[in-house]
Amino acid sequence: MALLVSCLLILVYYVYLGRRTHCAPDSSVHTLNARIRERWVEMIMSSGKMDILAIQTLRNSVMAANFMASTSILLIIGTLNISEKMGQGALGWHPYGLAQPFSTELWQLKLGLLLLDFSIAFYCFSMAIRFFNHVGYMINLPVDSAPDSSLYKQTCAYLNRAGSYYAFGTRTFFFSLPIILWFFGPYFLILGTLALVGGLAVLDKVPS
Fold this sequence. Notes:
Number of domains: 1
Structural class: mainly alpha
Strand content: under 5%
């Protein structure tokens, strides 16, 4: 039941976020980031003199995504190595009166969801690296950067796709926090989800 409530809370938030973004696109930080990336591509491709800036910016993005992908792998390995110790520690951390009977199947479900979360993060960061590398080849081609240019549109699409993968990979790290709290009891899962939704509401809003 706690897992269903947690999933419902996240679903309700994303439905609300989708409607808010549809009604007021300027209120979403994701929309703002996409526009900034498109303007950056237009500046680089139209100037013809910012090759070094483009390479350095994309290199920094690739390095950041590579670091996060490596972190995901380390978290997967660490979760597998300390899974048994986590089980013993979690049982000891249950508050008095809130402890639940230990279930091997439920414990395996929690562990499986945590590993799935980190695996999705690794996939997203790896795909972000892939698209950032493609942009590095595309953005330095001599081509007209007019809005109707097909290569310009493709470059913007690739860069925004890379940014979306990176953002979603980072978000999966946030989703792991309620799952980790779930090891200590169902009430912590719900509280962690509420805190996560509150934090996402702040992060997804354009700073004023």
